[in-house]
Specification:
Blueprint lengths: L2 H19 L4 H18 L12 H5 L5 H4 L7 H22 L1 H22 L11 H14 L4 E6 L2 E7 H14 L9 H22 L20 H10 L5 H13 L11 E3 L2 E3 L5 E3 L2
Antiparallel strand pairs: 1-2, 3-4, 4-5
Helix pairs in contact: 1-2, 2-5, 5-6, 5-7, 6-7, 6-9, 7-8, 7-9, 8-9, 10-11
């Protein structure tokens, strides 16, 4: 293995572990990882084709590590910025809904399937593949099958669209990244399609656990005790017991929610419409 590849794999592993142990958004950490790898390759002597993947490697069994490293390599600053813009807009939104671990599965598995799909179409060709677009395509596929009606911020050309439905974003992406570029020698539409389909399948497999967890009947405040992990929650729970004033109860419930992590995805919760709620869909109604 080339020294540069070893360094890049170490950086990827460090970024992923950092996001899990320091409670950082994995999607944002992956953006930083891609940027760091690009900067290193700019100044690393003889870095050409070290990180890129070629279908020939599946025949020879050589350089198979490039299935991973190619997902973090980019041909130019514009290639990098284009992919990272979409990762910033889509990644945190999906990660917030399905949780960090599931997001990691979507990103890396979609990227690998995208590479293998490209290889199947271009088998034996002396051609190279690089970029994060296959993994990002997987994010779009998962988003489409799990939260098609949710609204996210998206960019179209130079226009920022703050409330674009996921299904519309997916349709526009598919048009420009698969349909229009079919047959192009400059764009790996095969990888885009493979990543998208992989993400959609993964999303369907996740669907039951991603669906909103709803509590049919309202529960008393004592049920909140199972969520208590810190002193601020204990303080709020003690104040709620016996409190009858609706406004004061609401204030303490909001305080409790602001200091409570969702048991489904780990994000901080909020109090809305007599329920503890999380953006991932978890909801618990309280009397």
């Amino acid at each position: 293995m080339d020294a540069l590849a070893g360094v890049v794999i170490f950086i990827i592993a460090a970024c992923v572990l950092l996001s899990f142990f320091k409670r950082l958004d994995l999607s944002i950490t992956l953006v930083l990882c891609n940027i760091i790898v690009f900067i290193i390759t700019m100044f690393w002597s003889g870095s050409g084709y070290v990180l890129e993947f070629s279908p020939i490697y599946l025949e020879t069994g050589e350089n198979l590590y490039t299935i991973l490293t190619s997902m973090f390599a980019h041909a130019s600053i514009f290639h990098l910025l284009g992919n990272m813009l979409f990762l910033i807009l889509l990644g945190p939104a999906l990660e917030q809904r399905i949780g960090k671990l599931k997001f990691a599965v979507v990103y890396f598995l979609s990227g690998i399937v995208a590479t293998l799909t490209f290889s199947a179409v271009m088998w034996g060709e002396p051609i190279y593949l690089l970029g994060a677009s296959g993994a990002i395509s997987g994010i779009i596929g998962t988003f489409l099958v799990t939260y098609p009606r949710d609204k996210i911020t998206m960019i179209l050309g130079f226009i920022l669209i703050p409330d674009a439905p996921v299904w519309a974003v997916s349709a526009v992406w598919f048009l420009f990244n698969v349909v229009i570029v079919v047959g192009s020698s400059q764009t790996a539409w095969e990888a885009h399609l493979g990543g998208f389909l992989a993400g959609a399948v993964i999303g369907l497999l996740f669907y039951k656990s991603v669906k909103s967890e709803r509590v049919e009947s309202a529960l008393g405040v004592d049920t909140l005790e199972q969520l208590v992990t810190n002193s601020k929650q204990k303080e709020a729970l003690e104040a709620l017991r016996g409190e009858t004033n609706p406004d004061i109860r609401k204030a303490w419930l909001e305080h409790f929610a602001e200091n409570t992590q969702c048991p489904n995805c780990g994000s901080m919760m909020n109090w809305s419409k007599n329920s503890l709620k999380c953006n991932c869909g978890y909801s618990q109604k309280i009397k």
